[in-house]
């Protein structure tokens, strides 16, 4: 990270595109290495672009509801993480760097089976304070298992912005 990454400006002040990209890359790494739950669950960023993200989650017994099936709460967490990532991957950090989920809606369509699921998220509306994303979760066979909508609000600046992550 470049010096001064934690000083990203005042709400509404334009940031240079290089700084925006630096912050987006820091958040990409944070989603895999810096968020303890994501690391514990073994969520893996497969794609991180402003127009969409993909996060893969391999099956493990401690993520199951039944034999070889993901627990619904785990899928809900994956939808939340992916929806947030979809917003952050194209976010304008002049508006802030800390967000919080204010609404989460998940529709379970079919059981999500081992060996993995992949969540695809897109930000469908960006605002200065509130952002909206949509997520689709598919299993390894390509079946649509769940869909979701996530609303996030910008709540200020992250105090740990630019911190290093455990490897």
Strand content: 35-45%
The total count of helices amounts to 3
Number of strands: 8
The rounded Rg comes to 16 Å
The CATH superfamily title: Hotdog Thioesterase
Helix and strand topology:
Blueprint: H1 17-34, H2 36-41, E1 44-49, E2 52-58, E3 64-66, E4 69-70, H3 72-88, E5 98-108, E6 116-125, E7 130-139, E8 144-156
Antiparallel strand pairs: 1-2, 2-6, 3-4, 5-8, 6-7, 7-8
Task: Give a written overview of the molecule.
The structure is a single chain. The strands form two sheets. The protein has a six-stranded antiparallel sheet. Strands 3-4 form a two-stranded antiparallel sheet. Strand 7 and strand 8 (144-156) form a beta hairpin. Residues 1-10 have low confidence and may be disordered. By secondary structure, the protein is α+β, with helices and mostly antiparallel strands. It has helices at 17-34, 36-41, 72-88, and strands at 44-49, 52-58, 64-66, 69-70, 98-108, 116-125, 130-139, 144-156. It contains three helices and eight strands; from the N terminus they run H-H-E-E-E-E-H-E-E-E-E. It has one domain (17-156): Hotdog Thioesterase (Thiol Ester Dehydrase, Chain A).
